[in-house]
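Collaboration report, partner site 2.

Our partner group contributed sequences for two proteins of shared interest, and the home lab folded both. The records are reproduced in the order in which they were received, starting with the first partner submission.
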Amino acid sequence: MPPGRPARNTAEPAKAADLDALVALEERCFSGDRMSRRSYAAALANPRAVVLVARDAAGLLGAATLFFRADSPAARLYSIAVAPEARGHGLGAGLLRAVEAAARRHGAQALRLEVSAGNKSALALYRKSGYGVIGRVAGYYEDGSDAWRLEKRLPKPAPAGRRSSRRRAT
């Protein structure tokens, strides 16, 4: 990242006003298989979707889109994008933790995603974060490349206000 543009390593819900910036980020991050303006607008309005963004003073540096289905215990990470100048600074890992937390809050028991079989940096992030391969999808992307289907089981959130039963030794 250029000097003077520290990324906030926190994610927040996207707003309708972020639509142009989301589309611009998508175009900067991906050469194909992009979320369209229409898809982002639909996700922002969908109660079964969460769009999270990470930003700094100059604008969006990352975004993640998560979908839920009423008939599935698993949430689906549809897209995660980090601006080229923000890569390598933990922003992707921060967005991933934020979508996992959002999935747990929505009652999801697992998080699933597809990732290009050739995307070594994304695969390393997902493996380090506890995702396992549950399948391979041949020809998944526009360019004909394959995808790995990954999943991570999500622990249930602890009840609010619950204290640990452990006592400190004195």
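Second partner submission, folded after the first:
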Amino acid sequence: MSQEQQTIDLQQYEGTLQLLKHAVEGLDGEQLKRKPAPDKWSVTEVLSHLTDHNIVTTFRIRQIISEEEPKLPPFDQDPWVSRTRANESDIADIFAVYQALLTYNALLLRRIAADDFNRTGINVRGKSVSLAELLKAYVDHVHVHLGQIDRIKQAVI
């Protein structure tokens, strides 16, 4: 992976917070917590999930950089959202944690060697995943949830 490509990927990763903030701009607290159906997530829960996913990604990044072919941990997103009572979270707190994770990871990702982006771990499906692929998958995951946020907004507002 070239240094130029690495920079683009980091900018996309770091830019996810602004995309999420833009997606919820103008929503009040009640709208953020309203669910389209009892078994569906609210916008707050989606944002909490993405922060949880960023926590897991933070760990996976360090595993890939530091270990030889580590087994990357899975997580079961629905209990993480429901059992942590994510819908009771304050959006400002969620964004503060998300920002801290972005900053912490970006500091690390800027100081590692370009070759480290080719290091790999093994995902739950047994597939080898490079650090570069992990970061791209995270950004893609955020984009999937941006679509979900748009659908929730249409359903509840």
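Feedback sent to the partner group on the second submission included the following. Residues 3-156 form a domain with the Four Helix Bundle (Hemerythrin (Met), subunit A) fold (CATH 1.20.120.450). The chain has a mean pLDDT of 94.
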